Amino acid sequence: MKHILMLGTGGTIACKRSDAGLKPVITSEEILTYVPDSKRYCDIDSLQVFNIDSTNMQPRHWLAVARAIEEHYDRYDGFVICHGTDTMAYTAAALSYLVQDSPKPIVITGAQKPIDMENTDARTNLADSLFFASNDRAHGVNIVFDGKVIAGTRGKKERTKSYNAFSSINFPYIAAIQEDHILFYLDDKPECAQVKFYHEMSSGVVLLKLIPSMDASLLDYMAGHYDAVIIESFGVGGLPSYDSGDYYRAVGRWTALGKTVVMTTQVTNEGSNMSVYEVGKNIKQEFGLLESYDMTLEATVTKIMWILGQTKEPEEIRRLFYRTVNRDILWKS
Ligand SMILES: NC(=O)C[C@H](N)C(=O)O
After folding, report:
1. Is-contact 233 256, C-beta < 8 A?
2. How far away, in angstroms, is 15 Cα from ligand 1 center?
3. pLDDT tens, 305-319?
4. Residue 268 has pLDDT above 80, yes or no
5. Which of 12, 87, 91, 296 does the annotation list as catalytic?
6. How far is residue 67's CA from residue 240's CA, in Å, rounded to a whole number?
7. Does the pTM exceed 0.90?
8. 245 pLDDT exceeds 70?
């Protein structure tokens, strides 16, 4: 019998209705009473890390969850984190960087409807997660949602209301869970992996999403307040070159200050490739910008936060950024 620790962090799965709207108040202990059948294949303990709407999630919360896993790592065979869906993809990616190469499964799940409702996805998602976390072939950080297992760095919330809210972006699903069966599409548990925990994350990261006509003065403002900027540009990637935009000067200022500029795309699927068009190739070559290629935005943001928690040295930032962690980046220059 597997021994699983369920960590409650809040989200809709733990919500009750109130006059002020849905609010997470159901404890992790109470949540477990809704999945009594899971006791057939695992003993489950629960730990309430906090109980918040995931809209309020910050790097310190990711560090607290990682710390709780580290403290209990030796005593359990697997971990299931109940979490809000809104920022679940960020947390899954953040945990992929904070807890690397775990031979034990760390599953993140949640729901679109509270667990105490009659028509809810919460019970299935939680039962599937406990089932997956009890499987010998499961490992590392994954999202389990609506019968799909998604690598922790590849998840994205693509639907605000439907039960099939999450997709795996630019990467295959790891497995599908159907009733009492797990169909592994990727079955690659390493023979011997040694888990490694990290304890630092920087909040000095900002995102700039381009729209047509925007000028670059926001980048100047951001340079005074942040260590890294992720620019979500259009298509495969590029920066406007119209005079009033002045992006070249603003990006040059960022790099002259030794700060990090990462280029990514607003398009969800297929990733960036800045060397295709003149508007991308020139600026990348001139300033040596980082590029996220096939990474999700959530993975890009949390990876830079994790890296800046380890180093401020530009060459080391580049090396760590292009090193694959939990399947996050496959396409490199
Ligand atoms: N479905 C959900 O869990 C949404 C909720 N607002 C949260 O992310 O905490």
Report:
1. no
2. 9
3. 999 999 999 999 999
4. yes
5. 12
6. 43
7. yes
8. no
For ligand 1, pick from 9, 26, 51, 53 the residue to mutate: most ligand atoms within 8 Å of CB. 53
Please provide the size of the chain in residues: 333
Report CA(296)–ligand 1 centroid distance (Å): 20
Which domains can be identified in the chain, with CATH numbers?
2-197 (3.40.50.1170), 205-321 (3.40.50.40)
Q: Is 106 exposed, middle or buried (0-12, 13-18, 19+ CB in 10 A)?
A: buried
Quote the ligand 1 centre to 126 CA distance (angstroms).
15
- Judged against a pLDDT cut of 80, whether residue 243 lies above it is answered with no
Whether 55 sits among the annotated catalytic residues: the reply is no
The answer to whether residues 68 and 7 touch, using CB atoms and an 8 Å cutoff, is yes
Question: Is 279:73 a contact under the CB 8 Å cutoff?
Answer: no
Known binding-site positions for substrate:
54, 85-86
User: Is the Cβ–Cβ distance between 6 and 13 less than 8 Å?
Assistant: no
Residues having CB closer than 6 A to ligand 1 are: 11-12, 53-55, 84-86, 110, 112
- Average pLDDT of every residue of the chain: 96
The phi, psi pair for 64, rounded to 5°, reads -65, -40
Q: Closest Cα to atom 7, ligand 1: which residue?
A: 84
pLDDT at 192: 87
Question: What is the mean pLDDT of the segment spanning 133-137?
Answer: 98
pLDDT(263) > 90: yes
Place of tokens 């499961």: 138
Q: Is 153 a catalytic residue?
A: no
Share of the chain above pLDDT 70, in %: 99
| Structure tokens, 300 | 């890009």
Per annotation, catalytic residue among 27, 55, 85, 302: 85
Q: Rounded to an integer, what distance in angstroms lies between the CA atom of residue 28 and that of residue 79? A: 13
